[in-house]
Amino acid sequence: YDGYIFESSSLHLLLKNTKISSRKLLIYSHLKEALEQEEFHLVFQPIIDVSKNSIVGAEALLRWKGSKIGNITASELIPILEESEYIHPIGYWIIKKACKEMKKWHLKTKLNLELHINISSNQLKAANFGTTFLSILKEEQLDPTLFTLEITEHSFMELDENILNNIHLLSQNGVSFAIDDFGTGYSNFNNLNQLPISTIKIDKSFIMNALDSEKNIEIIDIMISLSKKLKIDVVAEGVETKEILQLLRNHNCSLIQGYYFSKPLHSSVFLDYIERNQVS
Ligand code: C2E
Ligand code: MG
Ligand code: MG
Ligand code: MG
Predict the structure, then answer these.
(1) What residues flank ligand 1, with Cβ below 6 Å?
(2) What is the pTM for the complete model shown?
(3) 108 band by pLDDT with thresholds 50, 70 and 90
(4) Domain EAL, which positions (predicted)?
């Protein structure tokens, strides 16, 4: 994966999409250089267990500070990476980089902090994704059971053989899976039934609007109850206020991610955050 060759075929792939905008092409044309010149970096958002008053770990999030085209948000960048073949080299770069940072936290804090990494369906479609992922962890001597791969609901719409094989291989080796942005896609209870899903993440659109209507609260409550009944974890993302945190606590949701506790942080700042807040 280090020597991933940038084939011009990926440009052809992108150009096959006739709806391509000039903005997309502009971003696309800077990707190779960005990867070579290390313009990408990761930030880490703490995931807190409020019932234990502890930091469970963090979710790694991609950032691109483009020297030529300015900051590009993850929401704009990721779909472009997915449409092109770039999701593969950059996806492996993300995993490697996140592992390296995680290793530092472990050495410094002696805590078994967990790491959530977002994975797109195209990554899971690559036949050797699972084995490559495990080999990266092995290189860093990291325990697979500390990893959760976050996949959005729409990835599950196209469960081909490779995706299933990768999910099963990783799961057999202790890696966990979370359904990200739960409730926004084509929620399919079959996935919860048939795949080794250990966590659902309630989409921030529900959480941020939680106090706007009674209906919203009911929907959140149902997602929490569903997870309890299925004996899987539930994380609320996008928790920005004390009021919403309190509401979630009242509904027995204790895994929290959001600006109320912390924005995504640079790795060293995340370390400071752990050292300041962790009660061991
Ligand atoms: P996501 O995985 O659902 O990540 C959560 C997003 O919510 C992040 O946005 C995070 O910064 C934001 N967020 C967290 N707490 C709050 C809050 O309290 N308030 C508000 N307003 N926002 C909050 P971000 O980093 O811009 O990422 C957007 C999406 O891009 C991610 O959504 C994920 O789907 C994708 N993404 C980011 N990094 C990666 C990556 O490394 N690989 C892949 N495949 N996708 C990624
Ligand atoms: Mg996520
Ligand atoms: Mg998420
Ligand atoms: Mg989400």
Answers:
(1) 45, 60-62, 73-75, 78, 94, 118-120, 150, 180-181, 204, 237-240, 257-259, 264
(2) 0.93
(3) very high
(4) 24-278
